[in-house]
Design a protein that fits this description.
The structure holds two protein chains of two kinds.
Chain A lengths: L1 E10 L2 E11 L4 E5 L6 H8 L7 E6 L2 E2 L4 H7 E4 L11 H11 L4 H14 L15 H13 L5 E5 L7 H12 L6 E6 L2 H7 L2 E6 L2 E6 L1 H9 L4 E6 L2 H9 L4 E8 L5 E7 L6 H11 L2 E7 L4 H9 L2 H5 L1
Parallel strand pairs in A: 3-8, 3-9, 6-7, 7-8
Antiparallel strand pairs in A: 1-2, 1-4, 4-5, 9-10, 11-13, 11-14, 12-13
Helix pairs in contact in A: 3-4, 4-5
Chain B lengths: L1 H15 L2 H27 L6 H7 L1 H15 L1 H9 L1 H6 L5 H19 L2 H12 L8 H28 L3 H24 L10 H6 L3 H9 L5 H23 L5
Helix pairs in contact in B: 1-7, 2-4, 2-8, 3-12, 4-9, 4-10, 5-9, 7-9, 7-13, 9-10, 9-12, 9-13
Amino acid sequence: MIEAINLTKRYAGRTAVQSISFSVARGEIVGLLGPNGAGKSTTMRILSCFMPATSGTARVAGCDVFRQADDVRRRIGYMPENNPLPGEMRVREYLKFRARLKGLGWRRSRERVATVMEQCGLTQVNRRIIGQLSKGYRQRVGLADALVHEPELIILDEPTIGLDPHQIRAVRQLIRSLAGKHTVLISTHILPEAEMMCSRMLIMYDGRILASDTPENLQRTVTGGRQIVAEIAAPLLSLREALLQLPEVESFDIMDGDDGFLRCTLTPRNGTDLRAVVYEAARQNGWLMRELTRNRHSLEDIYVQITQPPDEEEE
Amino acid sequence: MRAFAILLRRELAAFFLSLTGYVVIAAVTLLIGATFVMLIKNMGTEAFPLPVTEIFFNSSVFWIIVILTAPVITMRLFAFEKASGTYETLMTAPVGDVSVVAAKFVAALTFYMVMWLPTLGCLLIVSHFTNQAHALDKGLLGGMYLGIFLSGCLFLSIGCFTSSLTRSQMTAAMMSLAIGIIFFLAAYAAYAQVIPETGPWRTASVLYYFNLFRQMEDFTRGVADTRAMIFNGSAMFLFLFLTLRVVESRRWK
C-alpha cells in the first residue's frame, strides 16, 4: 500500500527525515513511533502530498505522491496534527463539504456522512457548531472526515493527543475497527497506545527508522527471552537449591514477599518458557504457589534502548 | 470546476454566516448613508449640474471605503486557514491550486459587490424625492457598478496576494493596505498632475493609467472606458498569478 524509498526532507538548514525506506502492506495498522521532532509528521505530510520530499520517492497504492498527487489524495484520508477544523461550521455541514470536496456525488456524500457519523458516534451532535464541541468530539469529527470518502489508506497524526482516558479508549476502538478494511498509519509518541492498536511498529528517531517489527518481536529482540515471576511459599535455602538444579534457568533473584511467600524473578536460557518448569519444581516439592507470570518487558524499555542517543550511552 | 463550485459555496458561507461580514456591510452602509444625507442636504440648497452618482463616487468617501474594506475582506482568505491549520486539510484534498485561489477570490468579490448594494437604496430615494429622475438611469447604474466591480478586482486581488504570503491576518491586512495606498497615491498624483508631462522616463504618461479617480468619474457618467478595464483586469491577473505561485511554492520550497 505504501512504498517509501530513500525519502529525505530537508528544511532550511535542518534535515527532518533522512533517507528512510519502508513499506506497508494492505490492511495493516502501522504505528509510527518516536519522540517529538523525530520526523513523524514530516513523513506523513510527504505521504499525504502536502509537501514533496527533497529526494527519494514514495508510492501510495502504486501512485507516485509527487507526480500523481491527485490520485493519491483521492485514496487517502489524512488527519493532520492537532486536527484543525473550521470552528464556525456545523458537524454535518462540514462533513458534507469535505465529502463533496473529495469527489463524492451529492447522494453518495449524504449516505457516507450519515454512515461515518454513526460510526464515529457523532449522530447526536450533528447540528452542533464544531467550535463549541468538546475535544473528544472534535477528534471524532476529524476521524470522520478522514473516513468519509472510504479511503484505502488512512493517515492519522497523533489521533489521541489531548484526550481524556475515556475518549482515548473510544478513539482506539474506532481505529482498531478499521483494521482489515483499511490500511492505517498512525503516529504517536505514546508506547502502550501503539502496542494496543498496531500490528507493526516503525520506530523513528532523529529522521531515521531504527526498527520495524511487530510489538512482540521487538520485545524479543531487545530482551532475548522473557523473564518470569513466581511467588512460592518455601524455605529460602531449599528453594535456592531447587532453582539452581534447573538447567533451563540462567539466573534468578529471590526477594522476600509477604505472608511467607518468596518472590523469584527467573531469567531463562535460550529464551525458553520457564513457567511449566517452575510449576513442576514447586509441585514436586509440595510448595504452595500463588503467582506465575511472564514479566512483560515494557515497550518503554525497548524504546529507550533503541532510541538512546549515543552520547548518553557513553555515560 | 466541481471543486471550484464546492469551495466557492464554502467561502461564501464563511462570509455571509460570520459576524465580521455583517459588521463590514453595516459599517459601509452607515458611511454611504451618512454621505448621501449630506449630499442631499446640499442639493436642497444649491443647484447641481451633475448626476448624484458622480458626486458621490468622486468624493473621498468612496475610496476610503474601498481601501479600508478590501484588506478586511481578504485578510482572512489564506492567512486564517494557515494559522488554524485547515490549510493542510484543504490542500491534501483532491483539489487543484487554481480552484482554491479562484474560489477564494470570486467569493471575496461577490461579497464586495453585495456590500455595495445599499447604494441602490440611496439612489432610489434620490430619484423619488428629487428632480434627478435620471439617477436610476440604466447606463449610469451599469457604469457605476462596473466601476465598483473593477475597483474590487484590483484591490481584492492585492489582498488575496498578501493573505497568501503570511499566516497572520494582521500582517496580511497591513501589507495590502500599504499596497492599496500606493495605488491611491499614484492615482492622486496622476489626477492632480503633480508630475509634469516633461518629467523623466515618461512618468506622467505611465501614471496616466493609474488615474483611478478619472476612471471612476467616467464610469459614473455612464462611460465604459476599455483602458480602465484592461488596466484593472491585468492588475488583477498579475496579483492572482502571484497568489497562485505562492500557493504552489510549497511544492518546490
